[in-house]
Design brief:
Elements (H helix, E strand, L loop, with lengths): L5 H4 L16 E2 L6 E8 L6 H12 L4 E7 L4 E6 L6 H10 L13 E8 L4 H12 L4 E7 L4 E6 L6 H10 L3 E7 L5 E7 L4 H12 L4 E7 L4 E6 L6 H9 L9 E4 L5 H33 L13 E3 L2 E2 H17 L1 H12 L5 H25 L11 H23 L1 H7 L5 E7 L5 E8 L8 E4 L8 E6 L2 E4 L1 H4 L5 E3 L4 E2 L4 E2 L4 E7 L5 H14 L5 H32 L13 H15 L3 H20 L2 E3 L2 H7 L4 E4 L1 H5 L5 E7 L5 H12 L5 H17 L10 E6 L3 E6 L2 E6 L1 H6 L6 H11 L3 E8 L2 E9 L6 H10 L3 E5 L4 H11 L3 E3 L4 H13 L4 E5 L5 H6 L2 E5 L12 E3 L5 H35 L4 H4 L5 H20 L14
Protein name: Copper-transporting ATPase
Organism: Melia azedarach (Chinaberry tree)
């Protein structure tokens, strides 16, 4: 299958029926401003004077460069500067002039990805999502708490990435731009000779005029330039030469490749280092407090000095606790105050609010006790100065371990990214194909149509086509298939795969983001960002969770304080060093900090991250949590025949004549008619006809061209070859054109169909001239896969456009009982809808192109045999290699992941259901067991860690079925 062209990838997200379009921004040199052209459909333009009045209104607007209005078509094309005026203001100006505008052009949608800092739980991600969606012009925003990223679709006429980042920062979170819409292909270069602002402006302007360059960003302080380009027109080496060509007079500019550090890894390391350092600083104060408060008092006489009174009832121990606790509470714990402030300002609550409430309650009550002791000579009270720092220390330790564990959830993606080698052997060839020179260059400097050499034991740097040599290539790192694949002249090779035993010369066809490896990474990243429907439960709970916890903590405090003051429980329940208020306060704080919603918010995204990464390493690309969740419900799998259950490489086994035409003439007619068809059977017929032509006639390669060529979906093709009308197809095509099919032809068809062969009839001028019998062998694993699906409780059905007899013969061979044959692509989709109406959850397995209507109609669409075409939009799951066993892998991985998510919810919810009553002191009257607040904080941290570690167990997933090819 062919890789999608870059033009397809640049199609706008939303299309409008009225054909209103906006050109993408193009940098102009005039004043360095970007101009954009917008087109509107305007009603009630009655004459040329109406058009003139609209033009005069528009030209008066500040920022509009020119406006042209067509009174005949009722359209306006306006060139404007977005910095000065927006498309919305232009539209409003036209409407104020008394002319209705049909629709506002929203299809010019830009996409950006942002790294979000400071998210703790699901409520944080919801807050970020809400803040982004409130920005005028944002169409859609998805925020992933586990991936710590946001993907935003916005209208560049109304807003930009700076406004979106500002909105996120106003909501109390950090944000950095990872990529924007024009980052499809970009190169980072280090510049020499750049000494002034004028130099930077000159180089930028010079680059913007270069063919294929779409966007240029210059950083004068770092002397770097980032260039976004179209790989069909230019490449990194051409851009470097262009920069050097900008040298003039004494000014010499040189450029070299600059590889920026990986932001995700760098930020992950910084975050890990931050939590570790904060934890260590916290421990610096917490360990002495713990020692003075809990260890020394139990070791008389060593701890007696702590009871020495400095003034009135204020002891050394109390003063030391106050001094050591304060830096932890207000310096190390500042992050909780900041987080709480922003959360409450957003009218929401998160973990920071709970921690801030708990630690403040303990700290300020202790301060009250210390001040009372300082001013009174009779007051005796117990401080909780050890509670606050110990609580903060355990929470920071938990976050540190959680960040470490979360880093491992994206290991599979990191391994995929690292597959491409750093260097490549670039060859220069002369006109006759002889090698003139060879040099090693960075893989990022490769351009389309380059010739590279891949020696044994080296990785293929980018996608390409073999032009010389032969070898075996291990594609397991991309497809999961361990068996080496033979590569010869004309075969495709995929970047990141390993060349085993031969030397290959490869012509580069895809670079940068267009390579199969890059598209796999993009799909997996998108999948990890997508929110699974099962996560809605956590989202709903988290909205009410924190207020409920605060209420529960307050009720717990009152529930212990009032009976204690009223003497409703025995005095010996109260520890010697406390009173009723202090005991009640400890229970209340314990409830506050133990019931954290973090574990709940991590239950789904961490499992989805690990599962999608693991799936990608096995050659199964699952496009997000939605597809992952739907796949586990599948009870019926619908298989296409050609290329799915069969090998997909049809071969002609016999050819017969039923007329006076010679075999040479018959072959020429069939070849001419089928030459323009892309169908696999058509290609097999053409190849066989050419071989027969050489056998029976001359070796003349000239093929007559068919006029009036037409494809009849699901039936065949027709055309005019010379003065003869030629039809090539099945029985249905013959019936449509009223061509009689005699008994001799019927017998031939019947005999071959019983052998699971497809008959291709060739009719010339209304009579069947001959036929080809085509066979497509069944995949060796098909029968085992159908049987295994049956053992999983899944029914298999075959839907094909082939004839009934062939379809039934194939179905019988693989063990499928229900067959729908002679079905066109729309019919396949309708059949799936019928099955869904019967209450079945249906998966469609097809080749991803002919079966796209059915793939979309199914609950889960699986594109099998996709090869390098990993960006099939119709499918929910892309199975990179053609092995049917991956259908089982996809469904089984989905089941295991959903099971793991449910287990994570049991961990998170079960923990809260069990821990909150214990923290509230339910067991205390009977067993004397109570949770001090610091221990409750440790338990809370452990719950999040247990959920992440539970998700990480999916890394050990093994395929349920692995068929060894004999």
């Amino acid at each position: 299958m062919e890789v999608k062209k870059s033009d397809d990838l640049k199609e706008p997200l939303l299309q409008h029926s009225n054909g209103v379009t906006i050109d993408m921004p193009r940098q102009i040199n005039d004043k360095g401003r970007k101009s954009r052209t917008v087109k509107f459909k305007i009603r009630e333009i009655k004459c040329a004077s109406c058009a003139t009045s609209i033009e005069s209104v528009l030209v008066d607007l500040d920022g509009v460069e020119n406006a042209m209005v067509s009174p005949l078509e009722g359209q306006a094309a306006i060139k404007y500067v977005p910095e000065l005026v927006s498309a919305k203001q232009i539209k409003e100006a036209i409407e104020e002039a008394g002319f209705p505008v049909d629709d506002f052009p929203e299809q010019d949608i830009a996409v950006c990805r942002l790294r979000i800092k400071g998210m703790m739980c699901t409520s944080c991600s919801e807050s970020v999502e809400h803040a982004i969606q409130m920005v005028d012009g944002v169409k859609k925003a998805v925020v992933g708490v586990a991936l710590e990223e946001a993907k935003v679709h916005f209208d560049p006429n109304l807003t930009d990435t700076d406004h979106i980042i500002k909105a996120i920062e106003d909501a109390g979170f950090g944000a950095d731009l990872i990529s924007s819409g024009n980052d499809v292909n970009k190169v980072h270069l280090k510049l020499e000779g750049l000494n002034s602002f004028e130099d930077a402006t000159f180089v930028q302007s010079f680059l913007e005029l270069a063919q294929g360059v779409s966007h240029v960003e210059t950083d004068l302080t770092e002397k770097k330039v980032t260039v976004s380009y179209d790989p069909n027109f230019t490449g990194p080496r051409t851009i470097i030469k262009h920069i050097e060509g900008a040298s003039h007079g004494p000014k010499n500019y040189r450029a070299s490749l600059y590889i920026p550090p990986r932001r995700r890894e760098t930020e992950r390391m910084q975050e890990t280092r931050m939590y570790r350092n904060q934890f260590l600083v916290s421990c610096l104060f917490t360990v002495p407090i713990f020692f003075f408060s809990m260890v020394l008092p139990m070791l008389p006489p060593y701890g007696n000095w702590l009871d020495y009174k400095i003034h009135n009832m204020l002891t050394i121990g109390m003063l030391l606790g106050w001094i050591l606790c304060t830096p932890v509470q207000f310096i190390v714990g500042r992050r909780f105050y900041v987080g709480s402030y922003h959360a409450l300002r957003r009218k929401s609550a998160n973990m920071d609010v709970l921690v801030a409430l708990g630690t403040n309650a303990a700290y300020f009550y202790s301060v009250y006790v210390a001040i009372k002791a300082l001013t009174s000579d009779t007051f005796e009270g117990q401080d909780f100065f050890e509670t606050s720092p110990m609580l903060i220390s355990f929470i920071l330790l938990g976050k540190y371990l959680e960040v470490l564990a979360k880093g491992k959830t994206s290991d599979a993606l990191a391994k995929l990214t690292d597959l491409a080698p750093e260097t490549a052997h670039l060859l220069t060839l002369d006109g006759e194909g002889n090698v003139i020179s060879e040099m090693d260059i960075n893989t990022q400097l490769l351009q389309k149509n380059d010739i590279i050499k891949i020696v044994p034991g080296e990785k293929v740097p980018v996608d390409g086509i073999v032009i010389d040599g032969q070898s075996h290539v291990n594609e397991s790192m991309i497809t999961g298939e361990a068996r080496p694949v033979a590569k010869r002249l004309g075969d495709k090779v995929i970047g990141g795969t390993m060349n085993e035993n031969g030397c290959l010369l490869v012509k580069v066809t895809h670079v940068g983001s267009e390579t199969a490896l890059s598209q796999i990474v993009q799909l997996v990243e998108a999948a990890q960002l997508a929110r699974a429907p099962v996560q809605k439960l956590a989202d709903q709970i988290s909205k009410f969770f924190v207020p409920m916890v605060v209420a529960a903590a307050f009720i717990t405090w009152l529930g212990w304080l009032i009976p204690g003051v009223a003497g409703l429980y025995p005095k010996h329940w109260i520890p010697n060093v406390m009173d009723e208020f202090e005991l009640a306060l400890q229970f209340g704080i314990a409830v506050l900090v133990i019931a954290c919603p973090c574990a709940l918010g991590l239950a789904t995204p961490t499992a989805v991250m690990v599962a999608t990464g693991k799936g990608a390493s096995l050659g199964v690309l699952i496009k997000g949590g939605n597809a992952l969740e739907k796949a586990h419900k599948v009870k019926t799998v619908v298989f296409d025949k050609t290329g799915t259950l069969t090998v997909g490489k049809p071969d002609v086994v016999s050819a017969v004549l039923f007329s006076k035409f010679s075999m040479e003439e018959f072959c020429d007619m069939a070849t001419a008619a089928e030459a323009n068809s892309e169908h696999p059977i058509a290609k097999a017929v053409v190849e066989h006809a050419k071989r027969l032509r050489q056998k029976f006639g001359s070796s003349n390669e000239h093929v007559a061209e068919a006029k009036d060529f037409e494809v009849h979906t699901g039936a065949g093709v027709s055309g005019k070859v010379g003065d003869k009308i030629v039809l090539v197809g099945n029985r249905r095509l013959m019936q449509a054109f009223h061509v009689p099919v005699g008994s001799e032809v019927e017998d031939y068809i019947s005999k071959n169909e019983q052998l699971a062969r497809t008959c291709v009839l060739v009719a010339i001028d209304g009579k069947v001239a001959g036929a080809f019998a085509v066979t497509d062998p069944v995949k060796p694993e098909a029968r085992i896969v159908v049987s295994f699906l049956c053992s999983m409780g899944i029914t298999s059905i075959m839907v094909t456009g082939d004839n009934w007899a062939t379809a039934h013969a194939i179905a019988k061979e693989v063990g499928i009982k229900e067959v729908f044959a002679e079905t066109d692509p729309i019919g396949k989709a309708n059949k799936i809808k019928e099955l869904q109406l019967e209450g079945m959850s249906v998966a469609m397995v097809g080749d991803g192109i002919n079966d796209s209507p059915a793939l979309v109609a199914a609950d889960v669409g699986m594109a099998i045999g996709a090869g390098t075409d990993v960006a099939i939009e119709a499918a929910d799951i892309v199975l990179i290699k053609s092995n049917l066993e991956d259908v089982i892998t996809a469904i089984d991985l989905s089941r295991k992941t959903i099971s793991r998510i449910r287990l994570n919810y049991v961990w998170a919810l079960g923990y809260n259901i069990l821990a909150m009553p214990i923290a509230a002191g339910v067991l205390y009257p009977f067993t004397g067991i109570r949770l001090p607040p610091w221990l409750a904080g440790a338990c809370m941290a452990a719950s999040s860690l247990s959920v992440v570690c539970s998700s990480l167990l999916l890394q050990s997933y093994k395929k349920p079925l692995h068929i060894k090819d004999s």
